[in-house]
Specification:
By secondary structure, this protein is α/β, with parallel strands linked by helices. Helices cover 26% and strands 26% of the residues.
Length: 503
């Protein structure tokens, strides 16, 4: 391209490029790039001019060239596909007529802050320093699948997609969806980010894909709003982050899918609102998470799937959990806040697949880790009662007997209470009407207390039962005391053995 072909605005950009100087075409600092389609020739720069500069622009000895353009209307398509761009690209508050194409390109730095674009095609893009899209408004898909960013990705305050619109499917190498599902608003899947993904306040109308992505630092989605009409707001299966995934005050309409993710420090969903009423709102199955924070989170609308997840600290109030959960195989070491076991138990009743013994054992272990043996025994008792419902009628009957008498061994003082009641009953009854001695000249002095104990205790003998024989109704009372004593002894032995084995 000859320099004589340039318009006055393009000539300013051309002359500033080798000196790495900025060109600001805005008429005022309040100019809105959304109105860029109406900007005249004084603010219009052709994409082919920018391409010529970036790939083979003029240089000045001793100076590092760079493109620094603000407030321009970029016409045509900026096509840098498979190109190697050495100068830094900084295109702030610009209006792009067509989606830039950087598929397979290698750039040093790319800054598009506060710009308006109809889309961005940059799959397998390589960026040496930073990709900054702070405050961008992108009506079409942002395609960064397979990108390799040595530095950070900034999407804070960006707005991706259009409410209620369905994006088209990408052509050629960028085509990812073959069905009728809309194309994701952000495609950052199978990418590598050297430091952080900073997306505070991001608004995405459409799916955000981060599955298979590796982030060296943290992913920050604080105050983000993710809306997907097809029900998958964040697709981040097997996502791996170096530190945290923050999503405090997240508003997600559609599933947040973190299945298989690795988050070594914290997954922060504090004060978030997760909503997928007809499906799963949160899925973190077989994931590995240091701490999962649901502090102050609104009740989840939709199912929660934590099947097979491994979590060190699970911080959530009981009110957070929905009516449907999947927690089979969920492992955690600590719970916060520390609450009475009775408040945690209803969650185990909501398991979609039914009774899971392991879930009760896991909860009991957490209480034992916290030093709350009372809470651990309460959970174990609840487990046996829940198990009783799965048994045939005859086994349930025996379970009821063990529960009423000694609480399956976790309430041993109940047996003492029953024995005391029966002892008082027998003592009073036999004191009023003494049984007759079998051999009057050999019988010991009658003692109603020890006679009753002889009937109740199947092993210990005081010589009273063998020496006296009750008559009439008292004989039936004696039979009742003998049978009850055997039941108490058997259930106590079974329950205590079971309780000791849990220890």
């Amino acid at each position: 391209m000859e320099i004589t072909d340039l318009t006055p605005a393009e000539l300013r950009v051309w002359r500033a490029f080798p000196l790495n100087e900025g060109v600001d075409l805005r008429e005022s600092a309040d100019d809105d790039p959304a109105d860029g389609a109406s900007w005249g020739p004084g603010r219009t720069v052709r994409a082919e001019v920018l391409r010529a500069l970036l790939l083979d622009g003029p240089t000045t000895g001793g100076r590092v060239p760079g493109l620094k353009l603000t407030g321009a209307r970029v016409t045509g398509r900026l096509d840098l596909m498979y190109g190697t761009v050495e100068p830094a690209m900084r295109l702030r508050s610009c209006h792009f007529e067509k989606p830039p194409n950087l598929y397979g390109a290698q750039v040093r730095a790319l800054v598009l802050s506060d710009s308006v674009l109809p889309g961005l095609t940059a799959g397998t893009l390589r960026v040496d320093i930073v990709l900054r899209m702070t405050g961008c408004r992108v009506t079409g898909p942002v395609r960064l699948a397979g990108a390799q960013l040595s530095g950070a990705l900034f999407l804070d305050g960006a707005v991706l997609g259009v409410p209620g619109a369905r994006s088209g499917r990408p052509p050629g190498p960028e085509r990812e969806d073959s069905g009728e599902r809309p194309e994701p608003a952000l495609q950052l899947n199978h990418a590598t980010v050297g430091t952080d993904v900073w997306a505070v306040g991001l608004t995405a109308h459409g799916r955000v894909r981060m599955d298979g992505t590796t982030v060296g630092g943290l992913v920050n989605l604080d105050d983000a709003e993710l809306h997907d009409p097809d029900g998958l707001a964040l697709e981040a299966e097997t996502l791996s982050v170096g530190t945290d995934l923050r999503a405090a005050r997240l508003r997600a309409r559609g599933m947040v899918n973190l299945s298989g993710a690795t988050i070594p420090r914290r997954l922060v969903l504090s004060s978030a609102r997760l909503s997928t009423p007809t499906g799963q709102a949160l899925r973190a199955s077989v994931s590995t998470i240091g701490e999962l924070w649901l502090r102050g989170t609104a009740p989840v609308q939709g199912a929660v799937n934590l099947r097979g997840a491994r979590i060190d600290l699970l911080e959530a109030a009981p009110e957070v959990w929905p009516e449907r959960v999947r927690i089979d195989g969920l492992t955690y070491r600590r719970l916060s806040p520390h609450l009475p076991a009775e408040r945690r138990l209803p969650l185990l009743e909501r398991e979609e697949t039914g009774y899971l013994p392991y879930a009760y054992e896991q909860l009991a272990t957490a209480y034992r880790t916290a030093g709350d043996e009372v809470g651990a025994r309460t959970v174990q008792l609840a487990k046996l009662r829940r198990h009783r419902r799965t048994l045939p009628p005859y086994a349930r009957l025996w379970g009821y007997v063990q529960d009423v008498t000694v609480g399956y061994g976790f309430r041993p003082m109940r047996a003492a209470g029953w024995l005391l009641v029966l002892l008082l009953t027998g003592t009073l009854a036999f004191a009023r009407e003494r049984p007759r001695p079998l051999k009057a000249d050999e019988a010991p002095d009658f003692n109603p207390v020890f006679y009753t104990l002889d009937l109740l205790l199947p092993i210990i003998g005081f010589g009273q039962e063998a020496a006296f024989a009750p008559r009439g109704a008292h004989q039936w009372l004696a039979y009742l005391l003998i049978v009850t004593g055997w039941i108490l002894a058997t259930t106590t032995a079974a329950g205590v053995t079971r309780a000791l084995s849990r220890q």
